[in-house]
């Protein structure tokens, strides 16, 4: 298990490859939710704190460099996961409070756009969820 802090500004090889948001979370505060700024120790003071589990399995059975390749790919996955969650918090005012129907529509548009760029056909699942995203306590 790896605990990630979206408020820390880590700079390693993968963060430069993947890209990095320019949001300073020690200064950022959401106008819609009042969440932020994320100062040192914010995880102990904030309730709730998001917990996400992601299982990543990489097997590179190549003698001599397989282990190094696996570690490099895991570091890239970690950087991608961290940056995705940083963006999710940084863009909170754009999506917080949207009805689930609108969220699903944006998800489908994003999926369709990515598949078009990759030259794949879109697989659209029909999920009927119309609940609004609930308001939760602020940090």
UniProtKB/TrEMBL annotation:
<dbReference type="InterPro" id="IPR055261">
    <property type="entry name" value="PI_transfer_N"/>
</dbReference>
<protein>
    <recommendedName>
        <fullName>Phosphatidylinositol transfer protein N-terminal domain-containing protein</fullName>
    </recommendedName>
</protein>
<dbReference type="Pfam" id="PF02121">
    <property type="entry name" value="IP_trans"/>
</dbReference>
<feature type="region of interest" description="Disordered">
    <location>
        <begin position="109"/>
        <end position="139"/>
    </location>
</feature>
<feature type="domain" description="Phosphatidylinositol transfer protein N-terminal">
    <location>
        <begin position="2"/>
        <end position="110"/>
    </location>
</feature>
<dbReference type="GO" id="GO:0005548">
    <property type="term" value="F:phospholipid transporter activity"/>
</dbReference>
<dbReference type="InterPro" id="IPR001666">
    <property type="entry name" value="PI_transfer"/>
</dbReference>
<dbReference type="InterPro" id="IPR023393">
    <property type="entry name" value="START-like_dom_sf"/>
</dbReference>
């Amino acid at each position: 298990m790896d605990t990630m802090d979206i408020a820390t500004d880590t700079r390693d090889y993968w963060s430069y490859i993947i890209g990095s948001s320019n949001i300073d979370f020690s200064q950022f505060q959401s106008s819609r939710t009042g969440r932020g700024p994320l100062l040192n120790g914010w995880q102990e003071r904030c309730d709730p704190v998001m917990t996400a589990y992601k299982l990543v399995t990489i097997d590179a059975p190549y003698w001599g460099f397989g282990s190094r390749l696996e570690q490099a790919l895991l570091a890239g996955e970690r950087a991608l996961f961290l940056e995705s969650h940083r963006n999710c918090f940084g863009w909170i005012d754009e999506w917080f409070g949207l009805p689930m129907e609108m969220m699903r529509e944006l998800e489908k548009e994003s999926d369709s756009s990515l598949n078009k760029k990759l030259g794949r056909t879109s697989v659209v699942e029909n999920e009927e969820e119309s609940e609004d995203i609930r308001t939760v306590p602020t940090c």
